[in-house]
Each structure stands twice: as structure tokens, then as C-alpha cells.
Amino acid sequence: MRRWGKNFKQRGEWVELVFMAAAASRGYHVLKPWGDSRAYDVGIDQGAHFLRVQVKCTGYRRHSGYYCQLQGGGCTTGYDLGRVDLFALYIVPTNVWYLVPASVILIPRPKTAIVLCPETRPKCNRYKYELFREAWGLLAKNRRDLARSGKHG
């Protein structure tokens, strides 16, 4: 647990670095906004397009999955599609990423938390986020296509 940092702020900074390294290793151009005043943590520069990514992590096991809180930390009004395009959710104990379009998290009503199940066999609607496990290709989509891909989730 030490690698997570001493507090939530340090853990957030750590997981952002882990995400940026993972995205960069896959050939994506990563940008980090200055300060904490944005609703997103990391930008993905695609030339003509730009994606805003909110990065979260969890290690909190709950039943057959991991409980991941999605509430805005420094963002007092929460998240919306005008400020975030994608959530990158990292399950620390399993070293698994879920890249979930913001439309899946925010529509029809914003979710404050979800359960991700990287260690159990997918079944029923409960495991609907498995479609986004290690979905690094979503970083290559523009905002409109990304929002459309979320409608299948």
C-alpha cells in the first residue's frame, strides 16, 4: 500500500503518472493540465482532436469486484460531458485498467460509484463494464465517436 502515497492527493498523483506512462507507452501523446482546477486529470492530444480523461483508482474489494468512487475530488460541481470525455479507472491489486466513455458514467444519471470485476467471470448485466477493460483504442477516438461507443455499454 505504500506505493499509493500517504493520502488521497498523493494516490491521485501517483495513478495519474501510471496512466500517463501506460498511454505514452502505447503511442498516445499525453498532456497534463497545470493545477487542479480542471474536471479532467490528463489530456490526450490527437492533433485535430483532444480528449479529456479523468483518472481514478481503487483497491477496495467489495463482494466479487472492486468499488470505484467517481465523485469529483477538486471539482465541486461534479463531472459532465462538457468537461470530461473518458474515465480511466485503475484496479491496483490486479493491475487492470478500464477506459470507460464518460457518457456511460454520466448518462442517464451520473453514477457516484461503480463496481468493476476483473477477477470474476462476466455474467449478466452486472459486468457491463468488462467491455471497457484495457480498451486503450478508445483514446484514438474523437469526442463524438467516443460518446457513441458508450451507448453500447
Structure commentary:
The structure is a single chain. With 153 residues, the chain is an alpha+beta fold. It has one domain (2-152): Trna Endonuclease, Chain: A, domain 1. Helices cover 20% and strands 25% of the residues. The protein contains 3 helices and 8 strands, in the order H-E-E-E-E-E-E-E-H-E-H. It has helices at residues 8-25, 102-106, 143-149; strands at residues 29-31, 42-45, 50-58, 61-62, 65-69, 86-91, 96-101, 113-116. It has a 5-stranded mixed sheet with strand order 1-2-3-6-7. It has a 3-stranded antiparallel sheet with strand order 4-5-8, with no helix packed on it. The longest helix has 18 residues, at 8-25. It is globular and about 45 Å long. The chain starts with 7 loop residues before the first helix and ends with a helix. The mean pLDDT is 86.
List the main descriptive attributes of the protein structure presented here.
153 residues; 3-stranded antiparallel beta sheet; alpha+beta; single chain
Could you provide a short overview of the structure?
By secondary structure, this protein is α+β, with helices and mostly antiparallel strands. It has three helices and eight strands; from the N terminus they run αβββββββαβα.
